[in-house]
Design goal:
Layout lengths: L1 H18 L8 E5 L5 H9 L4 E4 L2 H10 L6 E4 L8 H4 L5 E5 L2 H13 L4 E6 L13 H11 L5 E7 L12 H17 L4 E7 L6 H6 L4 E4 L1 H4 L12
Parallel strand pairs: 1-2, 1-8, 2-3, 3-4, 4-5, 5-6, 6-7
Bound molecules: pyridoxal-5'-phosphate.
The site of pyridoxal-5'-phosphate has 14 residues, from strand 8.
Amino acid sequence: MIAENLKNLRKRIEQTCQKCGRRSEDVRLVAVSKTFPVEAIQEAIDAGHIDFGENYVQELQEKYKAFAERIIHWHFIGHLQSNKVKYIAEYINLIHSVDDLNLGKEISKRSEQCNRIQDVLVEIHTTDEATKFGVQPEQAITLIKELSQLSHLRVCGLMTMGPFSDNPNDSRPSFRCVADLKKQIETEGIVNVRMHYLSMGMTHDFEVAIEEGATLIRIGTAIFGRRTKNLNGKER
Ligand SMILES: *Cc1c(COP(=O)(O)O)cnc(C)c1O
């Protein structure tokens, strides 16, 4: 079932890339396994998948331990509290959700203790929804310049979430805004900052995200099915 879903999804990614003249190798798929058990992750691993996204530190910790000897790339995609950074600093592959300097400082400090340089994305707030995290687009460059001064953190791109909506096209302005911002940041030529990743697009809007330049898409439902659990009521 999960293997089949992954196969179908890869086909859809391929088709969308073809339609808009992009190479499907340039779109990396993060399987969002939050709320799903380790058995589901195992199935995806068996189908050849290695990138997994989680958004609760405690849940990620448990899963990390279950697969400790496996080569999984773990992505932290949810809101990250500074006091939780220490739990994941040793192994997290990419943190998608840095939106303030103090969080960045904590990540750099903890990564230094682990002798690592942590790759992060800066989360951009692109909707009017008050509940979502992320830095305002106008403040992004200032924040990125500050983050670029930190010794054990490296900004590798931007992340955003589209609005709550059934219509994937409603996400297009958010995605375009972040793609434009990426170009603007590239022209700034900030030392130690690379704009390698644009993390945008979920199950309902990833095709639009690919059209707008996403290089990382974060997909849960289309791979693992609908989430019945809603941990802490904090989903999205
Ligand atoms: C849950 C989640 C996703 C995946 O959502 P689906 O609609 O299940 O694909 C992607 N990004 C973030 C930040 C999430 O929290």
